[in-house]
Specification:
By secondary structure, the chain is mostly beta strands. Among the domains are: 97 residues, no CATH class; 95 residues, Thrombin, subunit H, CATH 2.40.10; 59 residues, Thrombin, subunit H (Beta Barrel). The chain is 1% helix and 53% strand. It contains one helix and 47 strands. Strands 1-41-42-43-44-2 form a six-stranded mixed beta sheet, with no helix packed on it. Strands 24, 29, 30, 31 and 32 form a five-stranded antiparallel beta sheet that branches. Strand 12 and strand 13 form a beta hairpin. The longest helix is centred in the N-terminal third of the chain and has 4 residues. It is globular and about 70 Å long.
Length: 545
């Protein structure tokens, strides 16, 4: 699929005293064609780059070409390519030629470039409407009126059903009886396709498509619009189905009967204004996930602005053990942790925003894809007693603002943007107050934990680290205007709007740099050790460490 650069309105500029190093080149490979599409297998052995007419698959370790072919050679029915969707686990890729109701689709083998099957039977598909069922090497394809199950390697249609609406989301596969427990959802891009949609959690016989049982669920199952992470999880344990979505919903695995529910509806989009020209838009992290401690489950109930509580349940029976006092006026509660007998709440602060929008700049039409963070108010810190839900303490320090909060060894570390506060978990008493300006990074945008006792401050003008016990500054780094791209263990990655990459070693705050051409496509490997850069006809693999 075509990869778009990530542009963001929230930027960081790094100013510090560390020395700059350039990333070392592992290999560089020049292709015979332009790179308009690319896909990096972050866990596999090969990746691809393609123009509208040609495609190359290369080895991730050496950069050597495995094969290069014209699309007309691979699939004669396709004259040009409008979209590519890889399914790395099955070593296949879908090629699309869009033809206004007569889309041509070819499924090819990524390792050989051989066409496996072609069809014009399925229309208006995109990456959101195809789910790969790894255990059976099959695709569950969502059409407007039905769900179709086909073999990945041959395209053979095994069955279809009109009793399951929407896209297959998270699922649980049973090899004993060839069944699938699955949750449906409608991605934003497909919303107009479905009429009569209802929330379904279902168990289906994969041999014939028979729905064994179905029930409804509370909330809105979805994926993030850009990064595609699921916003819910599905697990099966002790013949119970656990759906974690705005709380927890529990079903009997054999019958589908709802055993108990501690869930609520919550729509976060109105927390932040939507930029003009948005095609897709989502706000995430506005409500903290449920917390399980032993046999106890703590859930934030954010039904509406007048009914907001912490609730504690017995996870085995669903029995409500206590309800806290009302948390009045909160628009978002991004953080909830249970530490040392206290339920710690972060009211307000940083939430994540993802969107794609189109706008005109001069004579050009620009497509902007963004992952960024914004601060939601009102803000505050509250602590409840885990034993009975009574209020233990509340801090008035953070009414003007908060980024987020983390914990170290009995200390609750809270950042207001200007200051770092260490607060005793039992009493809320301040142990220290340290200005983040000591790190020379401007206002803090967020804080992250590192090792057992280090606070990472990601600021407007850089990255710095502090000792969580004393508040003492440890290190500080410099970089150009950029935004947080990723964090894997001790590597923190920043990216500019021109696609330059800076990879910081959090042990020292020293970074390695790569200046990419404007418009370059970059992909970070899963372990954080490498960056793949796609520029015009050239692919470069860089070492981040």
């Amino acid at each position: 699929m075509r990869k778009l650069m990530l542009f963001t309105l929230l930027v960081f500029s790094f100013v510090g005293l560390t020395a700059q190093e350039d990333m070392t080149v592992v290999w560089e490979s020049k292709l015979s064609h332009q790179i308009l599409f690319s896909g990096t297998s972050l866990e596999g052995e090969h990746s691809y780059a393609a123009s509208e007419k040609e495609m190359t698959v290369f080895d991730n370790n050496s950069g050597k070409t495995i094969w290069t072919k014209d699309f007309k050679e691979i699939a004669p029915n396709l004259r040009k390519i409008d979209e590519l969707i890889p399914f790395w686990a099955s070593s296949t890729i879908f090629l699309f030629e869009r033809k206004m109701g007569k889309d041509q689709i070819a499924c090819i083998n990524l390792e050989t470039g051989q066409s496996l099957w072609t069809t014009d039977k399925y229309q208006d598909l995109d990456e959101n409407s195809i789910t790969y069922i790894d255990e059976e090497d099959c695709f569950a394809v969502t059409l407007k009126k039905s769900l179709v199950y086909i073999k990945a390697q041959t395209g053979e249609e095994l069955w279809s059903t009109e009793k399951f609406k929407g896209v297959v989301g998270k699922y649980f596969y049973s090899s004993n009886d060839k069944t699938l427990v699955m949750v449906n959802f409608v991605p934003s891009s497909l919303g107009a396709l479905f009429t009569g949609f209802k929330n379904q959690v279902s168990k289906i016989n994969l041999k014939n498509g028979e729905i064994i049982w179905e029930n409804t669920y509370i909330g809105r199952a979805d994926r993030k619009v850009i990064s595609k992470q699921f916003l819910f999880s599905l697990n099966v344990k002790d013949n119970k189905v656990y759906l974690n979505l705005n709380g927890l919903q529990v079903y009997d695995y054999n019958t589908g009967a709802k055993l108990w529910s501690a869930a609520f509806d919550f729509t976060p989009e109105k927390l932040v204004s939507k930029p003009s020209g948005c095609k897709v838009f989502g706000v995430y992290g506005a409500v903290a996930q449920p917390v399980t401690v032993g046999e106890d489950l703590y859930v934030l109930d954010m039904t509406d602005k007048n009914n907001q509580y912490v609730k504690k349940y017995d996870i085995n029976t669903g029995k409500l053990l206590w309800t806290s006092r009302e948390i009045k006026g909160a628009r978002a509660i991004p953080g909830m942790r249970v530490e040392d007998g206290k339920v710690l709440l972060q009211v307000g602060g940083v939430v994540e925003i993802q969107y794609t929008r189109t706008y005109r700049s001069g004579d050009q039409v620009v497509t902007e894809t963004a992952i960024l963070f914004e601060n939601v108010k009102p803000c505050g810190i509250q602590a409840f007693n885990a034993s009975d839900g009574t209020l233990a303490w509340e801090s008035e320090k953070f009414k003007k603002g908060i980024t987020n909060a983390i914990s170290f060894n009995g200390n609750n570390i809270v950042c207001s943007g200007k200051e770092l506060y260490s607060m005793d978990i039992a009493t809320g008493k301040e142990k220290y107050e340290v200005p983040v300006s000591k790190g020379g990074v401007g206002l803090a945008q967020m804080i992250l934990p590192f090792k057992d006792n280090i606070i990472v401050v990601v600021g407007e003008k850089g990255v710095s680290t502090f000792d969580a016990s004393t508040g003492q500054l440890i290190n500080s780094g410099k970089y150009r205007t950029s935004t947080l791209e990723d964090r894997i263990d001790d590597i923190l990655v920043m990216k500019t709007d021109k696609a330059d990459i800076g990879t910081f070693d959090l042990n020292t705050c020293v970074y390695k740099d790569f200046k990419a051409r404007t418009g370059a496509i970059t992909s970070l490997s899963r372990d954080g050790n490498f960056v793949y850069v796609y520029e015009k006809k050239t692919i470069t693999k860089l070492n981040t460490r």
